[in-house]
Design a protein that fits this description.
The protein has 2 domains: 171 residues, Rossmann fold; 106 residues, Rossmann fold, CATH 3.40.50. The chain is built from 12 helices and 10 strands.
C-alpha cells in the first residue's frame, strides 16, 4: 500500500462568493471547497476514507468491499483510492447488471474495482442477506465498509471540516445522503453555529434518525430542510439545472445535480425567504461528486 501522508497535509480552501442576492441581504456566503481535495477521491469521500485507510494500513487486510448504486460517488471514490494507493476494491452494486453500465460504474471498472451485482431485494437486506453474507465471506481478505462509508472512522474525518474553518460563522450547510457527513460535523465539540442539512432523498426526515444513530451524543443545533430533493435521489428538474448553470456563470464553481446543486438551490431559496439573519455568515460545504454531473 502506498504512503498515505497526503491525508494529513491537505486542507481545502474557504472561498467567499460575490453574489448580489447575498450582498443585498447583508449576508456573507462562503463555500468550503472540498471538491478541490482530489480530482477523483472527491469532497466528503476524501474525509470519510481518511481514517478508514489508516485502519486498513494497520490491518492484515488488503482492501475494501463496500456497497453502492449505479451512480454512487462512494463506489467511485473507493475505486479511485484503490487505484491511487494500491489496494483491492470490490463493489456490491444494487440491481441486476444492465446491458450498458452507468458512466460511474464504467469508471469504477477502469479504476480496477470488481463489481458484483445483486437484486434490489437482496441489496436492501445488506449483511442480513444470505447471498451477500456469502459474498462477504468469500472476500475475507477485505475490510467491509458500509454504504456511503458511513462508520465512526468516517465521522472522525468529517469532524475536521469544522476545525479547518478559521473564521467565525453562523451556519454550516451540507447536502445529506446517509447523514454521515452531518453526524461527523456535529461530533465536533464546537457549538457556536447552526448546522443545516439538505436531504437529497424524498422523505428525508429519516436522516435525523440516521444522524443520531451514527452520533448518539448529538446535542448541537441542527435542522433538516427536506423540500429540496427535486423528486428524489439523483432526480432533477429543468429548474435545478438552470440554477446550476447560472451559479456556475456567476462563480465559475461547478456543482452537480445529485447533492451540491440541491443544497445550493436550497440556500438561495431560504435566503430569498429571509431565513438567514442579517449580518450572518454562511459556510456551504462542497462535497464534490462532480464525476456524476450531467
Amino acid at each position: 500500500m502506498k504512503d498515505l501522508s497526503v491525508f494529513n497535509s491537505r486542507q481545502s480552501p474557504l472561498q467567499k462568493l460575490d453574489i448580489p442576492l447575498f450582498k443585498d441581504l447583508e449576508v456573507d456566503l462562503f463555500i468550503k471547497r472540498d471538491d478541490l481535495l482530489h480530482p477523483e477521491i472527491s469532497g466528503n469521500k476524501w474525509r470519510k476514507l481518511k481514517y478508514n485507510l489508516f485502519e486498513l494500513e494497520k490491518s492484515d487486510k488488503n482492501g475494501f468491499i463496500t456497497f453502492g448504486g449505479a451512480y454512487s460517488n462512494h463506489l467511485h471514490a473507493v475505486a479511485a483510492a484503490g487505484k491511487e494507493f494500491d489496494f483491492v476494491t470490490v463493489g456490491i452494486v444494487r440491481g441486476e447488471k444492465p446491458v450498458i453500465l452507468s458512466p460511474t460504474l464504467q469508471n469504477c471498472e477502469k479504476l480496477g474495482m470488481e463489481l458484483i451485482f445483486v437484486s434490489r431485494e437482496e441489496y436492501r437486506l445488506k449483511e442480513k442477506s444470505n447471498l451477500i453474507e456469502e459474498i462477504i465471506k468469500s472476500h475475507s481478505h477485505l475490510i467491509l465498509l458500509p454504504e456511503g462509508g458511513a462508520n465512526y472512522l468516517a465521522l472522525k474525518g468529517c469532524t475536521e471540516i469544522v476545525d479547518e474553518i478559521a473564521i467565525p460563522f453562523n451556519y454550516l450547510c451540507v447536502a445529506c445522503g446517509t447523514g454521515a457527513t452531518m453526524a461527523g460535523i456535529l461530533l465536533n465539540n464546537r457549538n457556536d453555529f447552526q448546522a443545516i442539512g439538505f436531504p437529497v432523498l424524498k422523505g428525508g426526515d429519516f436522516i435525523a434518525d440516521e444522524i443520531r444513530q451514527l452520533n448518539p451524543n448529538v446535542d448541537s443545533d441542527f435542522e433538516l430542510k427536506t423540500d429540496y430533493h427535486f423528486g428524489g435521489y439523483a432526480k432533477y428538474t429543468h429548474e435545478l439545472l438552470e440554477f446550476i448553470r447560472e451559479f456556475e456563470t456567476q462563480t465559475t464553481i461547478q456543482l452537480e445535480q445529485v447533492y451540491t446543486g440541491k443544497m445550493m438551490f436550497g440556500i438561495f431559496d431560504l435566503a430569498q425567504k429571509g431565513y438567514f439573519t442579517k449580518g450572518s455568515k454562511i459556510v456551504a460545504l462542497h462535497t464534490g461528486g462532480l464525476q456524476g454531473k450531467v
